[in-house]
C-alpha cells in the first residue's frame, strides 16, 4: 500500500474507530446511559419532528390544491403566503375534527356513563340475589367460606394498618407517585416544546432542506449523497402514504361498525364505533381494544347483545383484516398483504404498539430497496425470465 497522506488518514480513522469500539464494549453500561441521556435531551425535538411529519401530509395537500402558483393566466397573489396559510388551515382542520368528534362522542359518553351506573345498580342487586340463591343451594360451600372469614376476623387489623402506612411512608409508593407526576409534567413540556419546534420546521422546511443538502454534498461524495436523498424521499413518501392509508382504514372500520350496530339496534353505537376507529390506528390488532370496551358496555345492558356484538366484531374484523387493511394500507405503502401481517407481528414482538405502527412503512422501505437491488442484479447478470417464474 502506498502510504500517502490519504491512506494515512484512512488508517488513522480505522485505528480511532477500533479504539472507540473497544472502549465502548468495555464501558457498555456507561455508553447506554450516555445514549439514554442524549435521547431524553432530544425528546422534545423528536416529538416535534413526528408532529411536523404528520401535519406535513395535509399541509402539502393544501399547498398544492388551494394555493397554486397561477390561477388560470394570472399569478396567485396568495402564493407567497401559501406555507403560512396552509399551516393555519391545517391546525384549523385538526381542531375542527377533534371538536366534532368531541361534540359527537362526549355527550353520548356522558349518557353512557349514567346509563352504565344505573345498570350497575341493577346488576349488583341481581348478583346479590344470585349469591343468596347459590348459598341456599350449596350450604357446604357457604360453611367453607365462613371458616375462612372467621380466620380473617382474628387478624389484628390495627397492626396491618400500621405496617401498610409504614410501607407507604418508607417504601417506593410515594416515590413512584412523584415519579409518575413528574413524568406527566415532562411529557406535557416535551409536547409543548415539540409543537413549537414543529411549527418552525413546517414554516422553514424548504430552507432547512436546502441547508441539509449543502452540508451533505460538502462532506459526502455526490453519488452517495444522491442515493441517500433517494432513500430519504422514498422514506418520506412511504410514511406519508402509510399515515393516509391508516387514517382511511380506521374511518372505514368505524363507519362499518356504526352502520351495523345501528341496524342491529345495539346500544352505544356511536361511542363504540368512534373508540374502535381511534384504536384501529394501531395496525390490525388495535381494534381489539375497542372491542373489549364495547363488550363490557353492552354486557351490563344486555348480555345477549354483547354476544352478538362479539360475533359482529369477529365478522367485520375478518373483512377488515383480510380485505380492507391489506389493500388500503398495503397498496398505499407498496407492501404485499403477507408482508404487512409479518411486519405488524414482528413490530409488536419487538417494540409493542410503536413497533406495530412504524414497522409497516419501515418494512415497505426495505422491501422496495431490496426489490430495486434484485432487479438491477438480475439485469446485470442477464438471467432468462423463464427461470424466474
- List the helices and strands in order: HHEEHHHHHHHHHH
Structural class: mainly alpha
Distance between the termini: 47 Å
Question: What percent of the residues sit in helical stretches (DSSP H or I)?
Answer: over 70%
Low-confidence stretches: none
Overall 3D form: extended
Main β-sheet, spatial strand arrangement:
1-2
Number of helices: 12
% residues in beta strands? under 5%
What is the radius of gyration?
Answer: 30 Å
Question: Could you tell me the number of beta strands?
Answer: 2
Largest sheet: 2 strands, antiparallel
Mean pLDDT: 76
Can you describe what's shown?
The chain is 86% helix and 1% strand. The chain contains twelve helices and two strands, in the order ααββαααααααααα. The chain has helices at residues 5-26, 28-66, 82-137, 139-153, 157-170, 173-203, 205-219, 222-263, 269-279, 287-301, 303-333, 337-381; strands spanning 70-71, 74-75. It has a two-stranded antiparallel ribbon with strand order 1-2. Helix 8 runs antiparallel to helix 9 (269-279) and helix 9 packs antiparallel against helix 10. 17% of the residues are buried.
